[in-house]
Amino acid sequence: MKRYMYSVLLLSVMLITWEVMARLVDVSFILPSPMQISIKLWELKDVLLQHHLPATFAVISLGLAISLVLGIAIAIAMHYSKVLEQALYPLLITSQTIPIIALAPIFVLWFGYTIWSKVAVTILITFFPITIGMFDGLRSTDKELKELLQTFGLTRSQIFLKLEVPSALPSFFSGLKVAVPMSVIGAAIGEWLGAQSGLGYFSRRMMTQFDGAGVFAPIVILSFVGIVLFIVVLIIEKYFLKWRKK
Q: What percent of the chain clears pLDDT 70, i.e. is strictly above it?
C-alpha cells in the first residue's frame, strides 16, 4: 500500500484542485465538479450498470478475444515464415497509421449499428500490441538454448512449447497490458460514433443535452473497467511468470 501513497496523494490534490476550479468557474455543462459527477453517477447508476455497461463489456470482451486469437496466430506465422513476416509486418505498421476515428464510420456502414461495428474498432486498436509483443517475444528466444535442445533431439513443436513460448510470455504480457486499456477506448469510440446502447453512446447522448456531469459519469465507469481489466492481466501475468525476479 505504501508504494501507491504518492499516487493517491497526487490524485487527491488533482481532484481537490478540480473541485475548487469548477466551483469558481461555475459552468457545470462544460466543467462539472467531481462532486457533481459523483452525484450524477449515483442518480444514473441503475441505467448505466444494468443496461449500458453490459453492452460495452460485451464489445470489449469480444474485441479482446478475437485480437488475442488473431494476434497470436499472426505472430507465430511471422515467426516461422520469413516470407509472411516480410509481407505482413509492413501491413501491421500501416494499419496503425490510419486514424481510428476515420475508420469507425466505415465500420458502421459495413456492419450497421450492430455490436460488430464496435468490435471491429476494438480489434483494430488492440491486435497490434498483442501481435508485436508476441512476435518480439518469440524472436528474443535464446538461440544457444534452442540449439542445445535440438541436439537433445527435441522436435520443433517441443522446442516451441518448452522454450519459445515461455521466452515470449514477458513481451506478450507487456503487449497485453497495453491492449487492455486500449480495448476500453476502442469500445467507447465505436459506441460514440454509432450505437444504440453502451457507455460511449450514453456519454454522447448526454453531450447533446449539454449535461456535463452526465458526459463524465459513464467515462468514470469506463476508466474503472479499464483499471479492473489491467489488474486482472497483472494477476494472470504474476501467475504465469512466477520464475521472474521481482
A: 98
